[in-house]
Design brief:
Layout lengths: L1 H11 L7 H12 L4 E4 L6 H12 L3 E5 L7 H4 E6 L4 E6 L6 E5 L6 H4 L3 H6 L1 E4 L2 E4 L5 E6 L12 H6 L2 E3 L6 H10 L2 H8 L6 H11 L6 H16 L9 H17 L7 H12 L7 H14 L5
Parallel strand pairs: 1-8, 1-9, 2-5, 5-8
Antiparallel strand pairs: 3-4, 6-7
Helix pairs in contact: 1-2, 2-12, 3-9, 11-12, 12-13
Length: 303
């Protein structure tokens, strides 16, 4: 199994240069059956990452550009009257794909953002009283611009909590950026040329394998201690919920699996903690590393 995940990350690293840890976290999110939020400035490679994942995994892919005038039906689809049969025919929207890129999600109104809630939580959408199941696997990758940019709306807490992880790609280092300049638009072509390395059945098997990774009592206690600190310290107005505790356990298992182990370590918890907890604690991306390191100093690591 680790050979499959290693190959996926190697292929994606040809597109997203110098960001192997972020690629590992994105794959960790998918294997945990979660959804991914990427917060960054425009032009950092968010769309390239989502499209590259779809190509490498052989999954169907749709992109929706979120704008202030976008309606929920533009995402989920709608029923249109058929004059020949005198019935309403359902026309599915872009949400009926395996990977949905919700680009600049925080430029849409909260009403439109909420169109994703049922889909992300239950893998289905209800339209005109009828429930429609979504393709599996179903993976939402949403990008958002920093809130200081004009035309943005903060995501409601209920929407944020549906995202399993939040990551930030950040600026590349000088050598990587030099390579990007020299390659120019060639990278768009390379995205289309990525070969599929996995079938749906192999992906489902990897997702099932996550639950077989051993989560030892000391690691579980470490997760509980970290969560309890956010609730008892008084530092956070929105401490971590039981849903966040479950997400920490799942993502630690997935991270261990990608690392080639069938057991978890406290290091796995520390590797994923900021991405799972940061948005739930309302920590800005720019402050996440400092806040998370402060929490780690206060909560002892099990021996």
């Amino acid at each position: 199994m680790s050979q499959l995940t290693t190959k996926i990350i190697e292929d994606l690293s040809q597109l997203i240069l110098g960001k192997n840890e972020q690629l590992k976290l994105a794959l960790c999110c998918l294997l945990s059956k979660g959804h991914l939020l990427i917060e960054d400035l425009p032009g950092m490679g968010k769309t390239t990452l989502s499209h590259g994942l779809a190509n490498v995994l052989g999954l169907s892919y749709q992109r929706v550009q979120f704008t202030s005038d976008l309606l929920p039906a533009d995402i989920t689809g709608s029923s249109i009257f058929n004059s020949q049969t005198h019935t309403f025919d359902f026309h599915p929207g872009p949400i009926f794909s395996q990977i949905l890129l919700a680009d600049e999600i925080n430029r849409a109104s909260p009403k439109t953002q909420s169109a994703l809630l049922e889909a992300m939580e239950e893998g289905q959408v209800t339209i005109d009283g009828q429930t429609h199941g979504l393709a599996q696997p179903f993976f939402v990758i949403a990008t958002q611009n920093p809130l200081h940019q004009s035309g943005t709306h903060p995501l409601p807490e209920s929407q944020l909590d549906r995202f399993f992880m939040r990551i930030s790609l950040g600026y590349p280092d000088s050598e990587v950026e030099k390579s990007l300049i020299l390659q120019g638009n060639k990278r768009t072509f390379e995205t289309r040329q990525l070969e599929c390395n996995m079938t749906d059945e192999q992906l489902f098997a990897l997702q099932d394998e996550v639950m077989k990774v051993k989560l030892s009592d000391p690691v579980v206690q470490y997760i509980l201690d970290l969560v309890r600190y956010t609730r008892d310290s008084g530092e956070f107005s929105d401490p971590l919920s039981p849903r966040a505790s479950i997400a920490l356990g799942l993502s630690a298992r997935a991270y261990a699996l990608i690392s080639g182990r069938d057991y978890t370590l406290p290091d796995d918890v520390q590797a994923i903690f900021g991405c799972v907890a940061g948005h739930r604690l309302n920590i800005p991306c720019s402050e996440q590393l400092d806040v998370v390191n402060s929490i780690f100093k206060q909560v002892p690591v099990p021996v």
